[in-house]
Design brief:
Helix content is 12%, strand content 31%. It is mostly beta strands. The chain starts with 15 loop residues before the first helix and ends in a 15-residue tail after the last strand.
């Protein structure tokens, strides 16, 4: 004897709650897979740029990168900041990796600076994974302020 199952056209519909749960699971849990970079890929370097009366200050995090592996170039008013982490291949005979995520090789960022700088007097220091650039502004170049009048 066979069992008859009544066909319900609404059985394949998903509730709003299920759809939202699926969306949040895919949006917030899986992006970490995208953050894991393959060897040789270039990642986006995050930085802060602030300005004093005398200089532009650029600060960025370069964890695990040595000073000799940092490359800073300024062409015109375009700054390119690049850091490369060189990881040695370490394999132990007694164990095996379940996760191997610490292989980011290159971080880079190019920005247009908000003011012209004197590259001859620029200074850079890397301490505890934090890079700080002091870029003195060119003397005599000041922003022209235009006053707006109501008509």
């Amino acid at each position: 004897m066979s069992n008859l199952i009544r066909w319900d056209p609404h059985s394949r519909m998903v509730s709003l709650r299920e759809a939202m749960n699926r969306m949040f699971d895919e949006s917030f849990m899986r992006p970490f897979d995208d953050w894991l970079m393959e060897e040789g890929e270039i990642g986006q370097l995050v930085l802060d740029v602030s300005e004093t009366d005398e200089a532009l200050v650029v600060e960025t995090s370069l964890p695990g990168i040595r000073p000799e592996d940092v490359d800073i170039n300024i062409v015109g008013n375009t700054l390119t900041n690049k850091g490369e982490a060189k990881h040695e291949e370490k394999r132990e005979e007694k164990g095996r990796y379940h996760y191997r995520e610490r292989r980011i090789s290159t971080l880079q960022r190019t920005i247009t600076m908000p003011a012209e700088v004197n590259t001859d007097a620029a200074e850079a220091a890397l301490k505890d994974g934090e890079l700080k650039l002091m870029l003195p502004k060119v003397e005599g170049v000041q922003a022209n302020r235009i006053e707006v009048k109501a008509e």
